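Please fill in the sequence for the structure shown.

STRUCTURE ENCODING:
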C-alpha cells in the first residue's frame, strides 16, 4: 500500500477494504500491531506532545479520520482514498468481522457503557464474537495494578482485535505502552465509539459526517466538554494547512530548479 506524506505524517492510503486486508494479515501472522486514526485533534496534539509523536512514529498503520484531512490531501494534490474513522470501523467491517469470527474486546467508556455497546452490536451482528468488556476507572493509565489487571484480562480473553475508547491521546499512548504485553494482533483507539453504539451519545447524521460538520454536531451535544477542543485547539489546523501549502510550493520550486 502506498504512503502519503501530509503534515509530517506518513498516512497509509487506505479505504476500509485495505484496512480489512491489514487486519486479516495481522490475525494470520499473530504479530501484535496497532492502528492510528488520525484527525485534526491528533495533528494539533502532536505538535506539543513528544510521547504522542513517538506513538505515531512506531505505528503499523495511520489512516485519515477526518474530512478536513481528506480535503487537505486533495488540495495538496496528494489525494487520500477515504475517511477511515474509528467510529465507523464496526459499522463498515462488522459483517466481515462477524463472518471471520474474529474475537473483539471492548476497553473504555463509563461503567456499563461498553457492555451496552456490545448488546447493541449483537442486535445487528448476532454472531459477532465480543469476548470481553471493561470500563476502566478514571486515571487508570497511571494505576499500575489496574493496568496489570487489564493486561491479564486481555491475555485470558485472547482477542484478535482490541478496541480502546478512552479518548485521545490517552488511548493511543495506553495501547503503545501495553500492546506487546497482551499480544493481540490488532489494537485500535476508537474514541467515543462505545458511547455512540450504546446510545449514550447520539452520533451526527450521515449528512453532517459527509460534509465535514460532525465536529459541530458533537460540539452542540457536549459544549462544556468540547468547546475548547473544537473552537480553540483545532482552529490551529488552518495555520498548519497554510504552512503545508507553502511547503509544497517550495518543494515544487526546488524540484523545478533542480531539473
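FILLED IN BY: designer on duty
SEQUENCE:
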Amino acid at each position: 500500500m502506498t504512503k502519503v506524506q501530509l503534515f509530517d505524517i506518513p498516512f497509509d492510503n487506505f479505504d476500509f477494504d485495505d484496512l480489512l486486508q491489514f487486519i486479516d494479515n495481522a490475525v494470520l501472522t499473530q504479530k501484535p500491531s496497532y492502528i492510528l486514526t488520525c484527525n485534526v485533534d491528533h495533528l494539533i496534539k502532536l505538535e506539543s506532545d513528544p510521547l504522542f509523536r513517538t506513538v505515531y512514529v512506531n505505528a503499523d498503520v495511520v489512516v485519515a479520520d477526518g474530512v478536513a484531512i481528506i480535503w487537505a490531501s486533495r488540495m495538496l494534490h496528494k489525494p487520500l482514498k477515504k475517511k477511515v474513522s474509528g467510529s465507523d470501523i464496526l459499522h463498515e467491517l462488522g459483517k466481515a468481522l462477524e463472518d471471520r469470527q474474529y474475537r473483539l474486546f471492548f476497553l473504555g467508556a463509563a461503567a456499563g457503557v461498553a457492555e451496552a455497546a456490545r448488546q447493541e452490536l449483537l442486535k445487528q451482528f448476532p454472531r459477532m464474537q465480543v469476548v470481553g468488556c471493561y470500563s476502566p476507572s478514571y486515571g487508570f493509565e497511571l494505576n499500575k495494578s489496574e493496568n496489570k489487571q487489564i493486561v491479564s484480562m486481555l491475555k485470558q480473553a485472547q482477542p484478535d482485535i482490541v478496541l480502546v475508547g478512552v479518548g485521545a491521546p490517552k488511548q493511543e499512548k495506553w495501547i503503545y505502552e501495553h500492546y506487546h504485553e497482551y499480544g493481540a494482533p490488532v489494537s485500535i483507539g476508537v474514541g467515543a465509539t462505545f458511547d455512540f453504539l450504546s446510545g449514550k451519545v447520539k452520533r451526527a447524521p450521515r449528512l453532517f459526517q459527509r460534509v465535514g460538520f460532525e465536529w459541530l454536531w458533537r460540539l452542540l451535544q457536549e459544549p462544556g466538554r468540547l468547546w475548547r477542543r473544537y473552537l480553540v485547539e483545532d482552529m490551529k489546523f488552518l495555520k498548519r494547512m497554510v504552512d503545508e501549502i507553502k511547503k509544497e510550493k517550495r518543494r515544487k520550486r526546488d524540484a523545478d530548479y533542480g531539473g
